[in-house]
Design brief:
The protein is of the alpha+beta class. It folds into three domains: 144 residues; 247 residues, Rossmann fold (3-Layer(aba) Sandwich); 94 residues, no CATH class. Helices cover 25% and strands 23% of the residues. It is built from twelve helices and 24 strands. Strand 19, helix 5 and strand 20 form a beta-alpha-beta unit. The radius of gyration is 25 Å and the shape is globular.
Length: 567
């Protein structure tokens, strides 16, 4: 009996561990604060620890805790309860010397139209990146010796604030627009905005009576219009090295491609269109996925019926569905297909490169309809983790569990601002607490089949196309184009295979769709078999604008203006 009591007492006593006590310099602390407090470690000083967290093998360490109502003059602790990535708990950190930093990712309070109140990080012009978000506060990096078995408390002080980001200036060719969305403002209970970067066609000022088609490029948050440069490459540019493509001087290649695009854009025979990059960063991600969502609100309607008509009004767009088309890669690839399917009368062509999962039987490497666990296939004895990221030879860089563990360390309730959390925020119904309902338990990986069924009916694009083909087939025939590498980094080609099988079987009418694969091509192959991926990924605009211009005659209504904008 005494032995049993001894054991109970022994295990009831918290194990010794090093902890951290965080205070905020009084010059920064203006009132009660909510957010995610992140404690960061790096074993090198190549850059600040906040810039060294990722899914790659070189990632450093982060621990996170939620804070609410952090009052002036008080401190917060990061202790053994903090959840971390890649090491899950502070007590398991290897002893050694580290560069240490702490950062508070600030949350705001939103009173939603649905009646719920949520706390989320509002985008502040950076495209939802916690490590550069203006207004976030952080500490200087200090070098410390860490020994988890030592029972002491380390004090750190937050004394810095990330400054605002300067807005890009208008130029002769590039203009910027920002509007308050009535639809989104009503949903979020506070002013919400949409923006766009617009590349005006060559001769725009000289041809004042011409109205133009709109080429809508979807993708991650574009601070400015990317890949367009009116000056020759910088002769003094210090060459960088692309780890992904194993190329030295890739920054010069990018500048040369941008300058070459400018010469094509303003040269003879290039189709004259308004090229538009949408800005729709939101409290969950750098991009809304351009659809109506229970958790993000009516971004699809806001973009289609508020923003796009306003751009056409200000910059002489034709303003008809036949004269708009969409294209993009990855997130933008999914969006290009989704808005074409969900708004078939508003767009006249979809060019989707390396799209995010278009069939949830292949939600990267899991099947949300049949699998019980997101992280491990069923087995009587084995526990083999599902891969989440690979290179073009198939070497695994990260597992699904590791990717989601990083997201969980960065933010609970789908608030990491990263990939699996935004899929959840877009595709899921809203839970009772106002946050997205989990498709799977972020810690254990257990899949919720009721949420999977909701995903299928509302956002599984392969399912929706097949289900609704009798109603929308005549509006979609010839408009769907999908391109993906057969060694896509995130296994996105798997969903495209099943989508292709379905598209081939459509009838009354036949789909007349295009699906193409790049041999051994990684993310984000876009259909160009003549160039390596590191070049073709820089040519989305010139590739797809020319492709659409060559096809539009077969899909435009009788009497449509197909000539005035081809000067």
């Amino acid at each position: 009996m005494k032995k049993l009591l001894y054991l109970l007492l022994f295990f009831a006593i918290p194990s010794q561990a090093q902890t951290f006590r965080i205070t905020i310099d009084v010059s920064l602390h203006t009132g009660p604060l909510d957010g995610r407090l992140l404690l960061l470690f790096a074993n090198n000083d190549k850059s600040e620890p906040r810039f060294q967290i990722g899914d790659n093998l070189q990632t450093q360490q982060v621990f996170g805790v939620d804070v609410e109502g952090w009052q002036p003059g008080t401190s917060r602790s990061v202790d053994v309860q903090a959840f971390g990535y890649p090491v899950e708990r502070l007590k398991d950190m290897p002893a050694g010397d580290y560069y240490v930093q702490v950062l508070l990712h600030k949350y705001e309070t939103f009173h939603l139209k649905t009646g719920q109140t949520v706390k989320l990080p509002m985008d502040r012009g950076e495209g939802q990146h916690w490590n550069i978000a203006p207004g976030n506060i952080y500490s200087q990096t200090v070098k410390l010796h860490i020994d988890p078995i030592v029972n002491n408390e380390i004090a750190l002080t937050i004394s810095k604030i990330i400054p605002p980001i300067a807005l890009p200036a208008d130029t002769r060719y590039i203009k910027h627009i920002r509007i308050q969305s009535k639809l989104l403002t009503e949903f979020w209970g506070r002013p919400m905005y949409l923006g766009a970067n617009i590349l005006l066609p060559g001769g725009f000022e000289e041809h004042r009576k011409v109205k133009y088609p709109m080429a809508i490029f979807h993708g991650h948050f574009p601070a400015d219009f990317e890949g367009f440069r009116t000056t020759v490459p910088d002769a003094n540019l210090k060459p960088d090295t692309s780890a992904r493509f194993h190329i030295t001087g890739y920054n010069r290649i990018e500048q040369q491609e941008a300058y070459d695009f400018y010469k094509q854009w303003t040269g003879p025979k290039f189709p004259r269109v308004l090229a538009v990059e949408i800005q729709h960063a939101n409290p969950y991600y750098d991009d809304s996925y351009a659809v109506n969502s229970a958790n993000l609100g009516p971004y699809g309607d806001a973009i289609t019926y508020e923003l796009i008509p306003e751009i056409e009004k200000r910059f002489r767009g034709i303003g008809k569905g036949w004269a708009r088309f969409v294209y993009g890669g990855s997130t933008g690839g999914w969006e290009a297909l989704a808005v074409q399917v969900l708004y078939p009368d508003e767009y006249n062509g979809s060019y989707a490169a390396c799209p995010d999962p278009v069939d949830f039987h292949h939600y990267t490497t899991m099947n949300i309809y049949k699998d019980k666990n997101a992280y491990y296939p069923e087995s009587d004895f084995k526990k083999t983790p599902r891969p989440g990221e690979r290179d073009y030879l198939g070497h695994v860089q990260a597992t699904l569990k590791e990717i989601n563990q990083r997201e969980l360390a960065l933010g609970t309730r789908s608030r990491s601002g990263d990939q699996f959390d935004i899929w959840e925020a877009v595709f899921s119904p809203m839970d009772k607490d106002g946050y997205p309902k989990r498709i799977f338990d972020k810690y254990t990986g257990a899949i919720d089949t009721s949420v999977a069924n909701y995903w299928r009916d509302n956002f599984d694009l392969t399912h929706i196309i097949k289900r609704d083909w009798p109603k929308i087939g005549n509006k979609l025939k010839g408009k769907i184009h999908i391109y993906v590498g057969d060694m896509d980094t995130y296994y996105l080609n798997n969903a495209v295979y099943t989508a292709e099988d379905m598209l081939k079987k459509l009838s009354n009418p036949e789909c007349n769709c295009q699906v193409d694969y790049g041999d051994r091509a990684e993310h984000c192959w876009n259909g160009d078999h003549t160039q390596p991926n590191y070049i073709s990924r820089l040519r989305y605009h010139q590739m797809f604008i020319k492709k659409w211009a060559g096809e539009v005659g077969g899909r435009a209504p009788k009497g449509a203006d197909l000539k005035s904008w081809r000067y």
